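Why do we bother with holo predictions? Because pocket geometry can differ from the apo form. Keep that in mind while you read this record for adenosine monophosphate.
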Amino acid sequence: MGETKDLDLWTTSPAISLRVRDGFQLESVDRAATVGWPGSKKEGNKARKERGDLLDELQERLIAEARSGQKRRVLLVLQGMDTAGKGSLINKVAGMVDPQGVEISSFGVPTEEEASHDFLWRIEKRLPKPGMIGIFDRSHYEDVLVQKVENLAPPEEIERRYGAINDFETSLVDDGVTVIKIALLISYQEQGYRLLRRLARRDKHWKYSPSDVATREKWSAYDAAYQAMFERTSTDYAPWYAVPADNKWYARLAVTEILTQELAKMAPRWPEMDWDVEAEAKKVLETIPAIAARAAQKPLEKQAAKVAEESKIYREEVFDAVRDDATRDGGDRVANV
Ligand code: AMP
Ligand code: MG
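The structure, written out:
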């Protein structure tokens, strides 16, 4: 059992409560809710930062693992209407881990070249490399969302894409990718306020596009496209999480928790080295004159053994605690080693 952390106030893990299962109805989601989190915003932000430390270690283990030939990686897909908070979520979540372990890709209106290929062409080029956390700011799902609502592709092509996406994600999972799909759900009213706030700030104008209003006017058509997307593409191997996002702090907290738990379930391990720690420690100790000179009182062998022993216990306990938490909290997805 993992130790209970003071700041872990979750009553139900968001990995369970926000997961899109059969029978999911988008219209019954309260987008201002803080599902499973009875604590305050302040406590939420604190808890997220605390989780960040673990996330950071898990990610480093994943990178280390890849060095020794493992292919595992994570793909975090973010979808949401304009102002849903994709950008600031990336800023906060990616900011908690080593930037060298994160690959962020944004997908906008397809270029001429991209449009001349199958819709997955540009996506495949941006898949995370082994050991990395890939974050998609919009994704192949735009091809069944905006393209459906705006009739940018014929209905039978949209229909084909749901299946193509499931096949594609199956192949990703088989190839060692943990696929986590996050839909940031804001309310119509909240989006109105956020767009106004953008307009009221010179430094936010670059994020605004006059077409945002036209998109907003099609709100219910987008809701319908999201509902269809959830029904057709939330699978056991690559589930969607419907995250209420009117409270930005809650969305960040929930996504951090889901991501950390998925990484913990992957259980990345520090790789075994093909050299002997104790022997190497002794060699290094011999090169440090101050230590080598005192070797008569404190034999180098003993010091080397101590170094080797310390390396074994380093943070293993912390790791086991998180993994136990994540497995206990369930999710039916197991590590695909
Ligand atoms: P933003 O994320 O606000 O910079 O805007 C990117 C824009 O590109 C959004 O309006 C998206 O709907 C649009 N977009 C992204 N992918 C596609 C796609 N496959 N087809 C059409 N529009 C897209
Ligand atoms: Mg935009």
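Residues 277-327 form one domain.
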